[in-house]
């Protein structure tokens, strides 16, 4: 930056108040400032001066504002640049992403599950499995990484098939000189010491397991006996160290509503009692939300956006007190979820190929299929330029004037459909969130 360069305030500056203090945040750099009344006056006056004159007499202050992203060159079209970065990310074929549901069947009956009414599907047929491997082999041309997310239903019901498919993916990746790793979302009930010990071989680098609170709460919400719930909790706590070591990242997702707002505390205390404190465990609350969600209604008294954000803020503070790392600091994102990415595909047990992970197993977002005897056709159909969500552009959406766009990217692309409405999970409680991560980030 030289004195001759005309400047302007960034379009992605956010100003907030929190407990009598002033906060300023820039969404591109993802940096926040906390200021007193007097400091905020200096900060705001400087930004006003820059807006009016393109510069600021206090050069040292101007340099700081520039370095922190609060001011940018006047001829810099931030929106266009961010938009171009997002379009390039969407079009990139560097990483091939598959979300595979080897079955839609499940061994639990969670009272809130959006997949409750799915007809349990048989195991994925061997020819569909072979078709997926061949699809991967052809799609991997020119790629650097294959990422598989195992999903369901309950994926561990088909553990042996996961092992067999992983071996096949790993062979194909070795042939092509491509990296391979996997993630899994599982209810965890079928985890055994043997399966945990095998996770490194399966290249599973992240696992997410939902827990809903103490043993009684879990039993009630998951539709199992108290004894079974107790046995499962015991196994999980006893094997958490091994699970963390095997994968490197364990997310414990605690789905909360008005019936179990304190569930997060019970779950964390349970692990703490056993001395299980590891920065690789990510305890996070899950928002059960029936408004514009995947299903019209779930039989739960859901929290409002504001209530959830307050509950989450309290929970974050508790995690710090208990010595756990708190994930989820707002930062620049490359994509809101994988749906708009060109090289991302969901595959259900019947071989239907779609884009949106939570609706896997339904017709929604399906645009092709694994044709075991005609993978060339699968390749043609999945190479079209107008796949579902391919035209998603948060910078041209209802969010286009939002200062938080680079860190939110419009939240859920599905919620931008005319029949839905966009929920702003990040906006709720943003001041509290930023103040928290200033201290604990
Ligand atoms: C559908 S499950 C499939 C994988 C596996 N059976 C499991 O429970 O993790 C994937 C995730 O969706 C979450 N989920 C299910 N129903 C939900 C709902 N109505 N709202 C929000 N999340 C939900 C579950 O908590 C779980 O973390
Ligand atoms: S374990 Fe997963 S798939 Fe099964 S009912 Fe619960 S949330 Fe749904
Ligand atoms: S969803 Fe809300 S917070 Fe996110 S970019 Fe859109 S308007 Fe902003």
Automatic annotation (TrEMBL):
> Per UniProt, which keywords does this protein have?
4Fe-4S, Iron, Iron-sulfur, Metal-binding, S-adenosyl-L-methionine
Fetch the SUPFAM superfamilies from UniProt. Radical SAM enzymes
Q: What cofactors are annotated for this protein?
A: [4Fe-4S] cluster
Q: Name one Pfam family in it.
A: Radical_SAM
User: What are the Radical SAM core domain coordinates in residue numbering?
Assistant: 102-228
Q: Which InterPro entries match?
A: 4Fe4S-binding_SPASM_dom, Aldolase_TIM, rSAM, rSAM_sf
> What is the protein name stated in its UniProt record?
Radical SAM core domain-containing protein
